[in-house]
Amino acid sequence: MDYTFDDFLKTVEPQHKAFAEKMHHELIASGYKAAIESKATGFFIGYKHPKTKRSLMNFLFRKKGLLARIYPASKTPIIPNAITEGMIKEIDKAITCKMCSEKCIKGYKFAINDQAYDKCHYGAFLFVVSEESKPVIAKWIKTEIEENK
Fold first, then answer.
1. Are 109 and 75 in contact (CB under 8 A)?
2. Which domain covers residue 52, as residue numbers?
């Protein structure tokens, strides 16, 4: 079954609808392609670069509500200066990159406040969408879009 962005948006908490819509329109206007699926925990929407086919961002649902996963283009990503303490705690919880197999995409190596991290590609930048995280996520995605034109 094919799903639309409106199907996804109907399931987003009211306080996050405008943010999800804004991010969606920015990514689509920048040429990214959206793929929407229904998963056991709710809808999942991924945005891929039209030329590289690399994912930049996903929206997904978990028990905590709406989450955003960012896949920076660089393996040593530039973390926004405005990253919040709550987001840093979420990064701390992410699993360390173990280079799972030969096919593993490999994780990210980066530093925040002089703390070195080596985190798994899939969990490194998975954030609960909140009033605190929304401006940081939006800025980060905008920066990634500009750098990857």
1. yes
2. 5-147
Q: Name the more confident of 92 and 82.
A: 92
pLDDT surpasses 80 at 99: no
Q: Return all residues near 31 (Cβ < 8 A) that are at least 6 apart.
A: 49, 50
Task: Classify 65 as helix, strand or coil.
Answer: strand
Task: Give the residue carrying structure tokens 């206007």.
Answer: 29
Angle of the 17-29 helix axis to the 134-147 helix axis, nearest 10: 0
Q: How far apart are CA 110 and CA 104, in angstroms?
A: 18
Task: Count other C-beta atoms under 10 Å from residue 113's C-beta.
Answer: 8
Domains: count for the chain: 1
Q: Is 120 helix (H, G, I), strand (E, B) or coil?
A: coil
Q: For residue 118, with 0-12 CB atoms within 10 Å meaning exposed, 13-18 middle and 19 or more buried, which class applies?
A: middle
Burial-class residue 32 by CB neighbours within 10 Å (0-12, 13-18, 19+).
buried
Cα maximum dimension of the chain? 47
Which tokens in the block code for residue 59?
């929206």
Position 22 scores a pLDDT of: 97
